Amino acid sequence: MEAGSSQLLRRGIPHQILSGSVHYFRVHPQLWRDRLERVRALGLNTVDTYVAWNFHQDRADETPRWDDWRDLPQFIEIAGDLGLDVMLRPGPYICAEWANGGLPTFVTDTPRTAVRSSDPAYLAFVERWLDELIPQVAPLQSVHGGPITSVQVENEYGSFGDDAEYLAWMRDALRERGIRELLFTADGPTELMLDGGTIPGVWATATFGSDPSGARDLLSKRRPDEPFLCAEFWNGWFDHWGEQHHVRSAESAAKVVGDVVRSGGSVNLYMAHGGSNHGLWAGANHDGAKVQPTITSYDSDAPISEHGELTDKGAALREIFAAATGRAVSELPVMPGMAAVLPAQRIAVEPVADLLTALRPLTGSVASAGVPTFADLRLSSGMVLHRARPILPRGAHRIYLHDLRDRAYVFVDGICQGRLDDVDGSAGVEVVGHGLPVLLEVLVEDRGRINYGPLLGADKGAVGGVSIDRRLVHGWESVPVPLAGWGTDDLNDLAGAASDEAGRPSYDSAGLAQASFEIDEPADTFLALPGFSRGFCWVNGELIGRYDSVGPQRTTYVPAPYLRAGDNVITLLELESIGRAIELCERPDLGPSEPYVETFE
């Protein structure tokens, strides 16, 4: 692929990129081919994907994985088999509403390391990663007969910094390791962002959701000899817990896309198919006052929904892409039929272990004077149970969690005193003492690593410590709760912690609960949890993700590959209130909606 003289060329022939983003790490690998077939049937000729570094490597002493769900080459090869080109966006930072923006926490937690800069400590990490990544993808470039036709340098860097030396280093690092395809940068269409994110000799593209003519004019003034590409057209948007589901009308999206392609420009839909933030991979934003965790669904109001359905928006865009290639819609590849869905049913839930009864036996405790953070414990995600035995003076007092990141539950002698989050942690919870030592337990929950902005890589936990009134509490024993690493055996061990009735929770309290059901054949379903408050859900030992009654999403998509013929078990670690039943629904419910409004921050 070449981008010169205002014309994009593919193998010397004028070309228009009609692309859509699909993230392999958000789609179960057994569904990769199905979702890519749907992208092709949408009328697109290209698929775009990020590479999530932390999805492949969690610890510095581990070799990156490229198997099963992490088989990036297989995803790219499937795209190629279907006749799709691939725009590869290897980061190392990707944003993507993905935990920590795709950077492993062993990088961002390393003291005095300036991420996304020419800091030698950071570049050393990136060098080792690229030495592992590039050999996986370089053979799949178009020059070697593969589908990769373009590769991004970093990602929307102009929204973060102005280290031109770093961007030049990234460009050269890709070239030195064998990347031969067209390189590009992508930034918001403002002078500030383009000043910080573009680099000489690398194709400059824009990301936006509206005003394509304004973006085109700005880029053409700066790069008059380059073709126009909207590297991310935001035809929908993501959601935070506690907000509404963001939507964009088919008419609005189709108008902008039509304006771009009819004027000869290229476009990449972000997202063409969003998928899901299964596990604990959902990231978070920060608005300057509070953490804004991203929900489990990444449907993003995309043309192809989270469960693979062609939406009204998809149908409208399909007509535009057909026209752009001189075909009728009937001449496009056939859109695959929808997957089977389980019949709706209600399934009884059994509480099996009180929350603290289940967590207290966990091993791996760390003793320290102050409260350790997630970085201190080398924990990327999950929770930490902190324990101390301070004297609680007579009378009323307040327990404060200083500089609390996310959410925490405070227990005194096994009784929950209250829930605090990053906004009200400094308000504390009121307790009454009798001048005796108490068992103080603080369960801190990480709700998502920040993926965008200056707080990228921020630590998690009760960072400023815990105090009774103004007196700090010392002498802690802290147990990491690595939820993402648990499987069936671990969940069974937790359930076995309740060896007698005293260890079993009641409904409407916190704890571990299970439900089982039988099916003849696996099929898709949508899980609703009426009566539950917030927590984590496993299906047959696989962590599907978080749930939270604040919404917006009211159901969680469970693709058929998570289920099996015969008996299936759903396990719920509920932090506040166990419900009496779960529901398998035949349709998704992503909650009340509001229009997406474009902003450049």
Automatic annotation (TrEMBL):
Residues 7-322 form the Glycoside hydrolase 35 catalytic domain. This is Beta-galactosidase. Belongs to the glycosyl hydrolase 35 family. GO terms for molecular function: beta-galactosidase activity. It comes from the Bacteria. SUPFAM superfamilies: (Trans)glycosidases, Galactose-binding domain-like. Residues 514-568 form the Beta-galactosidase galactose-binding domain. Residues 373-481 form the Beta-galactosidase 1-like first all-beta domain. Keywords: Glycosidase, Hydrolase. The active site is at 156 (proton donor), 232 (nucleophile). One of its GO terms (biological process) is carbohydrate metabolic process.
